[in-house]
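Exercise 7.
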Amino acid sequence: MRSILQIGSHGVEVDVAATAACYARVSQPGPESCGCAHCRNWVAARHLVVSEELRRLLASLGIPDNGEINVAEYTGMRKPHGYIGWYFFVGRVVRGTLGVVANEFKVGDVSLHLSADHFFFAPEFADQEICQLNFCTEVDEFLTPADYQ
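Solution. The predicted structure, written as tokens, is:
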């Protein structure tokens, strides 16, 4: 069953149960399945980045706390590691313009925006109408320099 939620400046139609069912079929979240040092650093930082407010937003979409389909790391400007990442949910945007930086919104230190395009394939979401929740944030170093060798 789909419901309409206000997410930032967007109205989204979301099927929470279908999203949760897709995530229930994911054996390992994207960062855990990679195992590179950058992904391991993200996993170590996740509990600090995913605030209670962000957890509530993710839950309202049927997304688990560790539901990143994928993450990518870059050199941060304020902190050592910058991360971009992607969550999927079953649904679509019904109000608002997609992909426009002006429609970006923040939850704590995390910048978010919605996209109808998805950059990664997740077989658990095959044959579903998917909306992508993109995020960008910076985190501290949680691994030792030797972990990056």
